Amino acid sequence: MVGTAGLPHLLTRFYTTRTVADARRSVAWALFFIVLLYLSVPALAVLVKFEVMQDLVGSSFATLPNWILQWAKVDPSLISVSDVNGDGLVQFGEIRLGADIIMLATPEIGGMPYVVSGLVAAGGLAAALSTADGLLLTISNAMVRDMYSHEAGQTATAEQRVILSKFALMGVALVAALVASLKPADILPLVAASFSLAAAAFVPAMVLGIFWRGANRAGAVAGMAAGLATTVGYMLLNAPGLRAAFGATTPQTLWFGLLPADVGGVRRGGGPGGGHRRQPGHARARGALTSALRSAGSPRRR
Predict the structure, then answer these.
(1) Domain membership flag for residue 96
(2) In which element (H, E) is residue 79 found?
(3) What domain range is 65 assigned to?
(4) Nearest to 203, CA basis, from 45, 9, 23, 3
(5) Tens-digit pLDDT profile for residues 176-224
(6) Does residue 154 fall inside a structural domain?
(7) What does the CA dihedral 13, 18, 21, 26 come to, rounded to 10 degrees?
(8) At how many degrees (to 10) do helices 203-211 and 284-294 cross?
(9) What's the structural domain count of the chain?
(10) Which is the most buried residue in 113, 165, 190, 214, by most CB within 10 A?
(11) Which 8-state DSSP code applies to residue 253?
């Protein structure tokens, strides 16, 4: 949940609300649906396993359900059932289920027609494309507007910024496609790592910047750097792939038994908050802006 609040492409959605009160209501509804999603995923896994154990295990190979035969023809890596001991009965150890089949075959396991599985696959693809599109737009706009125009001090018209953002988007997309083609890890650890990094780097600065008037630019940058460095370092030191590549034989040093992809939620309470200090040149306008952000009755944007 904390990582979700810090994802950049989700934060930009708040630009579409007209007042602080509308933003808070949209956050409340978003959290409600996110909680439903996060609770339904493990529940779905439990229900699918129960269905497999109840109806598939112990049945005869001659009477296998149609969904197994259909999905095995689509991609044998998704699901395979082989009679290892030759008794003609399906045993739990003889079933190989891919991660994607849990979602794709669930409608057919529940007795729905095959077309529903196609709709589920189309919905998953649309969600992936929508997420990737939001991330690419956020990264390219940040590169052009924040890094090129502000930090580098380059002056560019609105039309030039749009053109540059398109080229930046294309470059980022090509790099992302190259990394994805290498398949460095499964999708689940990568997604969990992104949530953890967002929780460690963005959430503390965002929350303190709104609710603490003493927050400033130097403190926010220091806190974000500390949270990001700690989380990335913990992930690298405990990543199984890197440990195997460098021949590490020492046991993993897990904090409180947390996996590398989950440490960002714990790290958010440390360094990022400690880096914020009140400086003598703290402008009154900054305090007024903070008060306006905290007030649900702030005037509408024109």
Answers:
(1) yes
(2) strand 79-81
(3) 57-112
(4) 3
(5) 888 888 876 677 777 777 888 888 888 888 888 777 777 777 888 888 8
(6) yes
(7) -30
(8) 100
(9) 2
(10) 165
(11) -
